[in-house]
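Second opinion, please. Please look over this fold, written as tokens:

===
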Amino acid sequence: MSYPILTIIAHPYCVQSKSFQFNEIEEYEDLFEKYFELQGTEEYQFDLIDADETASELWNILKVSQYNLSQFFEIYDSGEFDMLEPLLKFKICIQHFGMDVEKALETYQDVCLYEGTPEEYAEEVINDSMNIPSFLENYIDYEKYAHDMECNGEIIHFEDEGYVLTNAHGI
């Protein structure tokens, strides 16, 4: 499969060997064989030169190396992570919970995210689960309730992404 916006450069660890660019796994495998036969080069470091947002984020999550390059292409080809939220869930499984890629692929769909702040989530939880009379609404401290949920490990706030993980105990 040829990708419209995906260029990777392979830098050999051997300084006498040449770098090469590719944009699909088959092209890499062909060039790897060619340079192995010509120069005996078998170890490369990769840099992502040009990519769409999904490929770039996936590249960073997987910390692509020669060891998992084919896995990167396999996951990217699957199309599972064309949207931001599934990719964020996958990232949380790997980077926050320390899962390996296979476990993260099995688990990421179980991650529940709320777009907003912990305080907004706390307010929604209370309002959805209880019928609060209007004269009591000003007495509820959503910030403290959200803080308690964070301290108890019920939720995790990913501030940079603008999401709250709402089922932290279930992952």
In short: The beta strands are 6-12, 20-22, 44-51, 113-115, 156-158, 163-165. The first strand starts at residue 6 and ends at 12. The radius of gyration is 22 Å. The helical segments are 25-39, 53-62, 69-78, 84-96, 101-107, 118-129, 142-151.
